[in-house]
C-alpha cells in the first residue's frame, strides 16, 4: 500500500482556501509540481481538496504514491472512540485509502460533536447558545495517542505526529509512545524562530514542519496581525533578496528550508505557487541566515490563549 516516500520540503498549505476554490487550487498545485499537501478536517475544504486530488490522479499528473498528504485530528475527536471515525471521514472526503501523515491538530480536547450535528465542528460547542463557548473534555493526550497508533497498525496512515506541542508535551509524549511521532508541526517564521523547540524535536528524531512560514501574511485578513508586522519589508530580507535576485517571500521561505524545516505556504495564485516552489537553485549565506534569524521577537500569531478568549469567550492558553 505505502511507499518509502519522504515528506517533500515544500508543501501547499490548504488553510483558508475557500471550498469553492479548493478543488481547482489543489489540481493546479499538483500540475505545477507540488507533491506535498497539508490539509485538516477543521479547514472545511477536504471534500473539495479530494476532488482536486482525484482529478489530478485521473489525469495522470502524478501517481498516489508520489503524493504526500497530511491531515489532522480535530479537537472534538480526541476520545479514542472517535479517532478512527474522524480519520475515516477525512479519508472519504479526500477520496484516499490512506494518509501519509496524521497529526493531532492541537493539544486541546473538546467535547464531542457528531458529524451529523456539525462538520467541521470548529471551536464552540453550541454556536446557537446565548453565549457560545468552548467545552473542554477530560481526555488525556496519552489516550488520544494510543488511538493514533492504532491507525498506523490498521494501515490507514503511514506516520503520525503532533501540532502545536511545546517541549514539555514532547518529553511526555516520548515517555509513553509505542509508535514515536515522526513530525512536529508548529508556527515558525523569522519573528518566531522557536529554536529550542525545533532543536528538541530534532533531538528526538522528528522532522519539523513550519506553518505560516511567512508570518503575518497569513493573519492580517483575520485581524490577528497588523499591517506593520510584515517580515517581508525587513532590511535583512530585502538585502538578501536584492543580492540573489529573488522575491522577499522566496528569501524567507529559503531561510525556513536552510534551517532544516519543511514549509507549507498557502497560495492559490499560479505565479506565487511557482515562486514558492522555486527555492532550490539558490542559497542564503550564513550571515544572511543569521541576520534573518536575529529578527526573532517571539511573536506568535496563532495563539489559542489569545484568539479563543476573543472569539470564543474561553481562556485556553497552551503556551506560557
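Sequence proposed for the structure above (320 residues):
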Amino acid at each position: 500500500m505505502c511507499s518509502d516516500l519522504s515528506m517533500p520540503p515544500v508543501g501547499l498549505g490548504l488553510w483558508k482556501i475557500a471550498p469553492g476554490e479548493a478543488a481547482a487550487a489543489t489540481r493546479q498545485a499538483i500540475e505545477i509540481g507540488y507533491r506535498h499537501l497539508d490539509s485538516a478536517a477543521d479547514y472545511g475544504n477536504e471534500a473539495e481538496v479530494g476532488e482536486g486530488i482525484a482529478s489530478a490522479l485521473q489525469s495522470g499528473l502524478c501517481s498516489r504514491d508520489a503524493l504526500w498528504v497530511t491531515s489532522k485530528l480535530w479537537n472534538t475527536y480526541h476520545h479514542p472512540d472517535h479517532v478512527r471515525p474522524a480519520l475515516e471521514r477525512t479519508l472519504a472526503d479526500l477520496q484516499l485509502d490512506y494518509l501519509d501523515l496524521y497529526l493531532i491538530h492541537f493539544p486541546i480536547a473538546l467535547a464531542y460533536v457528531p458529524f451529523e450535528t456539525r462538520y467541521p465542528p470548529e471551536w464552540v460547542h453550541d454556536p446557537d447558545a446565548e453565549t457560545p463557548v468552548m467545552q473542554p473534555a477530560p481526555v488525556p493526550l496519552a489516550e488520544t495517542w494510543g488511538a493514533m497508533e492504532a491507525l498506523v497498525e490498521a494501515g490507514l496512515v503511514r506516520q503520525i505526529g503532533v501540532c502545536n506541542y511545546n517541549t514539555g508535551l514532547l518529553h511526555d509524549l516520548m515517555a509513553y509512545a509505542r509508535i514515536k511521532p515522526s513530525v512536529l508541526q508548529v508556527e515558525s517564521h523569522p519573528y518566531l524562530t522557536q529554536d529550542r523547540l525545533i532543536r528538541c524535536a530534532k533531538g528526538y528524531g522528528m522532522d519539523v514542519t513550519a506553518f505560516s512560514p511567512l508570518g503575518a501574511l497569513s493573519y492580517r485578513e483575520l485581524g490577528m496581525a497588523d499591517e506593520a508586522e510584515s517580515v517581508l519589508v525587513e532590511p535583512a530580507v530585502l538585502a538578501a533578496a536584492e543580492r540573489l535576485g529573488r522575491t522577499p517571500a522566496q528569501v524567507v521561505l529559503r531561510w525556513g528550508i536552510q534551517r532544516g524545516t519543511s514549509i507549507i505556504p498557502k497560495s492559490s495564485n499560479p505565479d506565487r505557487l511557482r515562486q514558492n516552489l522555486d527555492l532550490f537553485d539558490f542559497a542564503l549565506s550564513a550571515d544572511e541566515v543569521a541576520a534573518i534569524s536575529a529578527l526573532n521577537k517571539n511573536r506568535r500569531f496563532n495563539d489559542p490563549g489569545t484568539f479563543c478568549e476573543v472569539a470564543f469567550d474561553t481562556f485556553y492558553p497552551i503556551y506560557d
